[in-house]
Design goal:
Helix content is 48%, strand content 5%. By secondary structure, it is mostly helical.
Length: 286
């Protein structure tokens, strides 16, 4: 059974749509606070449409039936929706819907123009592999501090919050510093926040270990061109794997046979094992 995969161009359109939706929501919220009501999207805020809010408020919700400050009930529903998609096909939210991931990819275009092939390959692998676990440290810190304080502490340092609220006067200096660091790092490394600091990416990344639709490589048809490795925004090693289970995969599908891989049905999002066709009496099944 195969999962129908959109091509790279479709992903960029979907990313742009989600970015615009989030931007409209936060602008409408700012206008509403100024007394101007925008039809259809009034009452929403950035916190209301953030699925990670559902994660950080879980402890308080189950212990007292209430939500962490600024978190809305909608965050819980969005968290469940994203969780279902992650169980099915991994961190689809990260690769297709997260507007901050999209923003980092836009900055990456500038970095590629400056550094060419060296872009996204500057940090030694030994250092990079260690840095990738920092986001789990961030996750543990955010969950513990939020649970004990009942406040959305991470917003004081969240570059995503700073990007979509920089004009409101509600953003702390820590968040602006984080946003500045992400912008600068994105000129050298693709999606640095996703790789090294995003707590929600840490949560969703675990779905790669048990997702139903896996990213699988057909060893019978693979020509070892390594194009899948070269286009991966997360610098994952794909060309030597039968199935990608790396916790950093964002299910962007840029490496698949409908995007970078030049051979049809060689790298696919599928539920079945690819390659090594079964034999009958010593011969390959035709």
């Amino acid at each position: 059974m195969k999962f129908l995969r959109p091509v790279s161009g479709t992903r960029k359109i979907v990313q742009l749509i989600f970015f615009i939706i989030v931007l409209l929501v936060v602008i409408a919220h700012s206008l509403e606070e100024a007394g101007i009501v925008v039809p259809l999207i009034q009452g929403a805020s950035l916190h209301a449409i953030c699925p990670f809010g559902g994660v950080v408020t879980l402890y308080q919700f189950f212990s007292s039936g209430t939500f962490v400050q600024k978190i809305h009930e909608s965050s819980l529903y969005l968290m469940l929706l994203v969780l279902v998609t992650a169980i099915l096909a991994g961190p689809v939210f990260c690769g297709w819907a997260c507007p901050f991931g999209t923003f980092q990819e836009w900055i990456a275009k500038i970095g590629r123009r400056i550094f060419g092939r060296k872009y996204n390959r500057m940090i030694p692998k030994s250092v990079d592999s260690l840095l990738r676990y920092l986001r789990y440290v961030v996750l543990v810190w955010v969950v513990i501090v939020t649970a004990t304080s009942a406040k959305l502490v991470f917003s004081d340092y969240d570059p995503y919050y700073a990007l979509f609220n920089f004009w409101t006067g509600e953003v702390g200096i820590g968040a602006f510093i984080s946003l500045g660091m992400v912008i600068v790092l994105s000129l050298f490394v693709e999606r640095p926040f996703c790789k090294y600091a995003c707590p929600y990416g840490a949560v969703l990344g675990l779905s790669n270990l048990f997702r139903i639709f896996g990213l699988r490589r057909n060893t019978d048809t693979c020509i070892s061109c390594n194009k899948c490795d070269k286009v991966c925004p997360m610098n994952l090693s794909i060309a030597n794997k039968k199935i990608v289970r790396d916790h950093q995969c964002i299910s962007c599908l840029e490496c698949t046979s409908e995007a970078a891989c030049p051979v049809d049905t060689t790298l696919e999002l599928s539920t079945k094992k690819l390659g090594s066709r079964p034999t009958v009496e010593g011969g390959l099944v035709e």
